[in-house]
Amino acid sequence: MRIVLIHPNYHSGGAEIAGNWPPAWVAYLAGSLKQVGFEDIHFLDAMTNDLSEEELRKRLVELQPDIIGCTAITPSIYTAERCLEIAREVCPSAIRVLGGIHATFMYKQVFSEAPWVDVIVRGEGEEIFAEFVQAVDTGRWPQERHAIRGLAFIEPDGSIVATPAAPTVKNFDAVTPDWSLLEWEKYIYVPLGVRVAIPNMARGCPFTCSFCSQWKFWRDYRIRDPKKVVDEIETLVNDHQVGFFILADEEPTINRKKFIAFCRELIARGLPDRVKWGINTRVTDIIRDEEYLALYREAGLVHVSLGTEAAAQLKLDRFNKETKVEQNKRAIQLLRDADIFTEAQFIVGLDNETPET
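Above: the chain sequence. Below: its structure as tokens.
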């Protein structure tokens, strides 16, 4: 059973200012597949390698996979759909699978636009995709397609079926990513000129900000054992020479006790001398943790991206953000005082905004 995973060749100048980001979804998905016995896994990073359609076509012809998986966020959905259309042209017998946030919520639209997509994985993919691949491998697909939770597909009569949602991955500590699939020399964090990784410490978010899809996608909040996260980071540093990482979590500081334990474990292993890191978080967490900011900096935290979202209270209230403008300002000042680089995120383009505002 040969499986090819594709990261579509979508580019956005703003997202790439700081460098090429390693697609962590590939490592986590491949790790889960290998845990259930599938070893023949290949990865085509069409984005980082800027693969043309002809180059993608050539690689797929060479690999001749049985299953082709692709991911998409909303800006990359049409590129992802095109990847799988090319797959149909050159590997017509392969099963074409699409996952990611956009496909999870917009599966009906995706099928209307791209009927060549055979299956959509809805939600976090490790367990769903592994179960699907096992069904294909044992000859139970497509006969038993309705028994696999978290999928969507087109029936022979043209109707679209979404099976019941799959449970979230409860034993998050058991998820073991396979980082070896990535071409690490190509993932560079430009400000520091070092290799960059994006590991997970937690999934989900207890907040329900109206603009955000993450709490809907990941559903419940789960956090890993801090020591296991540091084990993974140590592997990234030792085996792949990673010099900077960003925790992929929406808000890794939610659980202060575990975040502090994570920082202290990094310090105990001497990792801050070898790797620096950054996070995304809420301004309220920074204010809450004022007394611990020096510890966070000692552990190697050098970059915090704050969800400030707006400079007007009316907009913060509209976003259901549960924060105040004064808190935004306070958090930024605290981080500056702690010698931690601060990035403030803002949402623009609301229906009552103009280019001037």
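The mean pLDDT is 92.
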